[in-house]
Please model this.
Amino acid sequence: MPENENIENTENVETIENNDTIENIETVETPPESTEPAKKKGGGFLKFRDSILGTTVILGGITAITVFVLSAIHSLTAPIIEKRLQSEKQESIVELFGEGTVLEYADFDFESPVVDAAYVKELSSDKLIGYFVTVAPKGFGGEILMLVAVNTNITVKNIKILEMSETAGIGTKIESESWFAEQFRFKTKNIAAGKTGQNTVDVISGATKSSKAVISGTNAALEAAEKIRVGPTDSDKTDEIEEEVEVDEMDEVDEVDEGDEGEETEETGEEVIFDE
Model:
C-alpha cells in the first residue's frame, strides 16, 4: 500500500476519534442545581434556638433580665423620687398656706385615692389653720399625684399637681391652664362637672377624663379632711374595741389551755393523749 494512503487513513482515524470525544463531552449533562435550602451549620444549639421551646426559653430569659434591671433601677431611684416629692410638698405648704406652718400627719386608714392627710398648724401658736391632703386619682394616662389644701370649714383652698402621665398638650392642661384650678377655690364636698351650678367646675375640652380625675381627687381630699377634723367615728371606735376584745379572748383561751395541760401533767405524771 502506498505510504500516502497509510498517512491519510491514519489522519481519518484520528479525526473520527476526536469527533467522538467532542460529542461525548457535549452530551455530558450538567446536574441540576438543588432547590433545597442549605442546611444551617451550628449543631444542636441552633436547632434548639429555632424550636418553639427554645424561642420560649430565650424570650423568658430576656423578660426576666428586663424585670430584674427595672427592679434594680426602681430600688435605686425610689428614695430619690420620694425625697424630691417630700421637698415639693414642703414647698407647696409654704405656697398654699404661707410661712411658719407645720404639718401634723393624721393616723387614719384612708381609702384610695387618698394617700395621706395632715393637719396644718401655725408653728408659733400650734393653731389649726387647715388641712393638707395628698391624693392620686386615676386619669387618662395613669395616676395623677396632686395636693389639695383645705380650709378649716372644709372648702378647697387650692390644688396643685405634682406628677402625672397625661397626654402632652391635652391632658396636661389640668396643670398648665390656671383657670381650671381656680374654679376649685372655696368649693365644698361633692363637686360636679358642669358649666352651671354653685358647686360645679367646667372640664377642659378634649381632656374630660383628666379633668374628672382632678374632680374626684378633690372630693376625696375634702372627705379625708372632714374625717380627720371630726376624728374617729363611733363605728371606727366600735371596730377597734371589737378587735381588742377578740385579741384578749384569744389570749385568755391560750392561757387556760396552757394551765390545763400543766395540771394534767402534774397529777398523772404522764403525757395524756386524746383520740381524734
About this structure: The CA atoms of residues 93 and 99 lie 8 Å apart.
